[in-house]
Amino acid sequence: MDDFFAILRIVERKCDDFGVPRIDIDDGIALYSLLYVLATEKNNVVVIDAGAGVGYSTLWLLKALEDACAEGVLYAIERDKTRFLELEKTLGMLKASCVKVYSINDDAIEFVERKFDFETLNFIFIDIDKNKYFDMFIAAKNKLAKGGLMAFHNAYMVKNIVEKILNEAHKINWFATIIPTDEGILLLRKR
């Protein structure tokens, strides 16, 4: 992935051309750092990018996994068909050698509910419709492995939903914080 920044710039332009919102670079660096550390501690990781858009956040996650040379799987899930087709083109630009990458055209919540068993996920980045954040938390909390991370983008935009998730996370004794990027990332870690 020597050409990571060149591909990142191409996908930034693609986001602008298609009017697809994307994470900021500080969010990307935060996600990269979190996943890199997690991936170096695990033999095999299962990672989800829920609401992948055209693949900007997916690139950051894939870079972390490849740099850690983590074996495992990355699922990039996008519900919108037009964005999904562009996501597939983005993933076609990359050569992953350590991780298998799958693009999924589906509703992220439904896919998580259907596809994964108890405590099989290691990292989930969530950037779906904000009003569905709590539903995703409920759908994924038992699918997340102990020590796994769940990260919600745009935490500052939806304070009432973030508060609801935080209350539930504290009830089940999870670690929780908001990473102070420009847009905020709600980070949860399962004990």
UniProtKB/TrEMBL annotation:
Its EC number is 2.1.1.-. SUPFAM superfamilies: S-adenosyl-L-methionine-dependent methyltransferases (SSF53335). Coiled coil: none annotated. Gene3D superfamilies: Vaccinia Virus protein VP39 (3.40.50.150). CDD domains: AdoMet_MTases. Keywords: Methyltransferase, S-adenosyl-L-methionine, Transferase. Pfam families: Methyltransf_3. GO terms for biological process: methylation. One of its GO terms (molecular function) is methyltransferase activity. It is an enzyme of class 2 (transferase). The keyword DNA-binding does not apply. This is Class I SAM-dependent methyltransferase.
